[in-house]
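Figure 2 data, in text form.
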Amino acid sequence: MEWNLEDGKSVQLSPTVADIKAAVQGLMDSDREFLILTPPAPIKGCNFMQLMKHDDSHVHFEISILKPDGGNRIYYQDFSPYLANALLELFRIENGVPEVDDWKIEGEYGD
């Protein structure tokens, strides 16, 4: 399995940092409704990150963390596109997942 970047229109396998930057810019330009970056396997419990445009200067950034007993919990924050892009790059290049202890919870799904 590979990394993939989905935007509702297509799925791109093994996206580069440049691909991610272009996708975030497309989201801000209203070219796309959302972006989902999925690793080949969960990283530190994170099985995907998703962005949606919040307004002209912010994105709604969601992180899905798998729960030990099954299912997942979605955390979210609103960020500038610059910070959102940096978090996606950290996830993609360095397998970095931000601490979500102070993030809001969108919902819990599954078991």
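Caption note: Residues 84 and 100 are 14 Å apart (CA to CA).
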